[in-house]
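Posting for a labmate who doesn't have an account.
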Amino acid sequence: VTRLGEAKVASRTAGRLRATIRDSAALAFTLNESRRAFGEARAALADLAPEVAVVAEGRAWIGQTRGIVERDAGDFRSALADLDVAAAQAERLGMAGLLTTTRQVRVLVLTLLGRLEEAETLAVEGVAELERQPEPWPDAVAKALNSLGWVRLARLAADPDGAAPDPRPALERALELRQGRPPNPQEDANMLVNLALAEILYGRPEQALGRLDKVREVAPGLPALVRPWVWDIEGRAALLQGRPTDALERFERLRDAARVAGTVGLQWRGEVGRGRALEALGRDLDAEAAHRAAEVLLDRQVFQIPLGAGRDTFLDDRDSSARH
């Protein structure tokens, strides 16, 4: 992070406009992915008006990066607006690679909003578009398949007894494409965590914990991006295995870390898990307090979603997740 900050200063001092924009985007991306430092990531992108005014593609680069930061921070209103700007600019300038990745980020935002049919359609189109290329880049296809798997995970979570497609084939294929590729611990860990979550949703806690063992093999120390999800899956597995005390410890760890990071969605997930664990322990009053805390967090998050952009589906999805 320090080196990236120094690189930005050096590029700006030397008058290298494109390099300043790229250094800023790299700094913000690293702050977001490795530290979940959303405020610092936003600040890294906040002073680029002079460069973006001159460098046309800068609006696309910065819009995409800002959209990723706002998505992870839970500000879906801002994320959608930034991604729309990035996609429009990338399409106008013929920036095919950036347009593809921006659409994948949009898939995840739509999924978080509960707009699952729209998200799945966009994800399927993204995979097909990449595979139509004469020599598809395996890592890009793997990432697109992971996005498709994530949408199908959300469909499964929202309607566990319905006809949601099994997310595991897309995720397994994504991992297969990563075999023999240059190491990318965070990406591989993300795919494995998604597979672990699928096993939880199918009621297979032992298999889910086995996937998490693989996560720790490919990414010792656990990247910040996946760490909260590991705690969530471990807590849910513990509940399925009749270990509510262990589950409560994991969910409290998740809630406390999310509170420090300011990620409201993960705080909500932690409180919902706490409520279930406390119910299993017979601590009904504490469980009720945890569920009330989850409702307060939900209220905070829902008003960041524009009317007509998915507020109703977001609430429906959270309601079904809380009851499942």
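Reply:
Got it, the structure tokens are right above this. The mean pLDDT is 90.
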